Amino acid sequence: MIVTTARKQATALEQTARLYADQLQASFVQREDRSLEALTSLYSEDLLIVAKNKVMLYPLDRANPFFYHPNAALLRYKQWKQTGHDPFIEITGLKAGETCIDATLGMAADSIIAQLAVGETGTVIGLEANKEIAFVVQKGLHTWNEADALFLNAMRQIQVHQVDSLSYLKNRADKSAEIVYFDPMFETKIDSPGLAGMRHYACHFPVTAEHITEASRIATRAVVLKDHFKSSQFAKYGFTVQRRQHAAFQYGRLDVSQQ
């Protein structure tokens, strides 16, 4: 991977770009007013552009760029503030001071909602296997600034770990989080800012019996799974689905409080 700056404010951004290159074990190159096409043609590697309050990752094959955007989380937040309801908060039962492990972080939309629910005294841990996604999302959570203070504070508090979720879960202590959550990458296309670019890097893996076993060992309340309404995963692992009318994707809950 090559890391460089946006054309505007290239000098001011150079120190940050060099730092990001070190963090990614990538190579920094000066922009020198060169186009993206010229840089990718010259270096034949993916290209990370560092701009003010934003990073954009361009795959070598010139697919859609990957960048951070809170997507539906911001809309859900506004609805939650108005109505006091959100389907994820309701199925998880998350309250102030609790801990949620999001084992499939992605763009962190549900992690943001979880952090809003658990508040400043609670903890949300997001696990992301792909290095590029973890990096872009973590930076985005700390630099996005187009929302109110409550939403931004929730974004900043999320703990992002670049790690295979199963490896992390196997090393997590028994009964150390109220909720463990899985939202595996859907094959169904979703039109949303940044998601098209993320698909180029996303790790596609099925939720296995081993994932569920480890999550059930860790959770004190429930394991929650989000999947397409036609998915066989809910029945396969014993999840109870609270059907939402006209929703393509549903939340299922596996209560472990009695286990």
Task: Please give a handful of descriptors for the protein shown.
11 helices; alpha/beta; 259 residues; 12 strands; 2 domains; globular; Rossmann fold; five-stranded mixed sheet; single chain; seven-stranded mixed sheet
Describe this structure in words.
- The structure is a single chain.
- 38% of the residues lie in helices and 22% in strands.
- It is an alpha/beta fold and 259 residues long.
- The chain has two domains: 61 residues; 184 residues, Vaccinia Virus protein VP39 (Rossmann fold, 3-Layer(aba) Sandwich), CATH 3.40.50.150.
- The strands form two sheets. The protein has a seven-stranded mixed beta sheet with strand order 8-7-6-9-10-12-11, with helices on both faces.
- Helix 5 links the parallel strand 6 and strand 7.
- Helix 3 runs parallel beside helix 5 and helix 5 packs across helix 7.
- The longest helix is centred in the first third of the chain and has 15 residues.
- The chain is globular.
- The chain starts with a strand and ends with a strand.
- The model has no long low-confidence stretch (mean pLDDT 90).
- Pfam families: SAM_MT.
- This is SAM-dependent methyltransferase.
- InterPro entries: 16SrRNA_methylTrfase_J, SAM-dependent_MTases_sf.
Mean pLDDT: 90
- Do you know the CATH topology of the largest domain? Rossmann fold
**Through-space gap between termini:** 46 Å
Residue share in β-strands: 15-25%
Q: Please identify which CATH superfamily of the largest domain we are dealing with.
A: Vaccinia Virus protein VP39
CATH hierarchy: architecture of the largest domain: 3-Layer(aba) Sandwich
Tally of contiguous helical segments = 11
> What is the H/E string?
EHEHEEEHHEHEHHEHEHHEHEE
- Report the count of strand segments: 12
What is the class of the largest domain in the CATH system? Alpha Beta
Spatially, the strands of the biggest sheet line up as: 8-7-6-9-10-12-11
InterPro entries: 16SrRNA_methylTrfase_J, SAM-dependent_MTases_sf
Protein name: SAM-dependent methyltransferase
Pfam families: SAM_MT
Organism: Shouchella xiaoxiensis
